[in-house]
Amino acid sequence: MAKDKKHKKNKHKDKKPKGPTMAETADRHAMYQAAVQAVDVEVEFLDKLFHDLRGRKPLSFKEDFCGTALLSVEWCKSDTQRTAIGVDICADTLKWGEEHNVRPAGSEVASRVTLLNKDVRDVHDPKVDITCAFNFSFCIFKTRDALREYFAKAREGLKDDGMLVLDMFGGTECLDELEEETELDDVNATYVWEHAKFNPITNEILCYIHFEFPDKSRMDKAFTYDWRLWSLPELKELLEEAGYKKVRIYWEKFENTDDDDDYLESTGEFFEATEAENQESWHAYLVAEK
Fold first, then answer.
1. CATH architecture of 28-169+231-289
2. Pairing assessment for the beta strands 282-289 and 246-255 based on DSSP bridges
3. 281: which of 65, 122, 171, 232 fits an S-S bond (Cβ 3.0–4.6 Å)?
4. How far, CA to CA in Å, does 263 sit from each of 170, 185, 279?
5. How far is 189 from 277, CA to CA, in rounded Å?
6. pTM of the predicted structure, to 2 decimals
7. What angle do CA 216, 217, 223 make, to 5 degrees?
8. What is the pLDDT of residues 122-150, one digit of tens each?
């Protein structure tokens, strides 16, 4: 009898909870936006950057590899004179962005956002003040020739005083296989960034985004990134070869906020730099002026 009771208890314990898991009901695009994007901060950075360098307010904007176009929508929400073009090769992602970001912003904002399901290298008109390629998206181009071509095509789409703005990551941890976890209180989940593989001969890096939930379910490989990890000197040289007259590097400011002198925390502020100390992890912007 004891065996029978024990067997019944274990059987009951192994039963799966009724209904779908949190991972099964979560929307991966909404999760991505909560985990990765801070579009209000990015718009503020671009606005100040352009005004400081050009002495005027930037109005026209193109977001290459725009995904859900959240940044394009925020750009147009920030000023009634602003327009944005979002370009992405994935039609399904653009459709999601149209339904969840563009339309909910209201008809007035939506009228100033144009989404194009095209290769970013094929969109050159209308000319814009700023083109950006954020979240390291341009790293899909793995050869110098391919990346130089993209930079040159992006330059064609800029006004005479326009600029291309990129962001890039690096640091000693990039060469390691690792997982970093960040709690996302707003969506009740954990964001997991994984470096799954790095090839030091080609500098190719394979990364994943996963999401974990309080019910122990996991959205595994919600996003996959097969990139080349470009260095800042390589990017600067390729931008100059593509015809940009000046390339500036903006380095993220870190401060000591702990009793441990070796512990530095990101401030989210960036300053122009020509020299910096290497770190376990860093994030920088490149600003290429036409």
1. 3-Layer(aba) Sandwich (3.40)
2. antiparallel
3. 171
4. 18, 24, 11
5. 33
6. 0.88
7. 130
8. 999 999 999 999 999 999 999 999 999 99
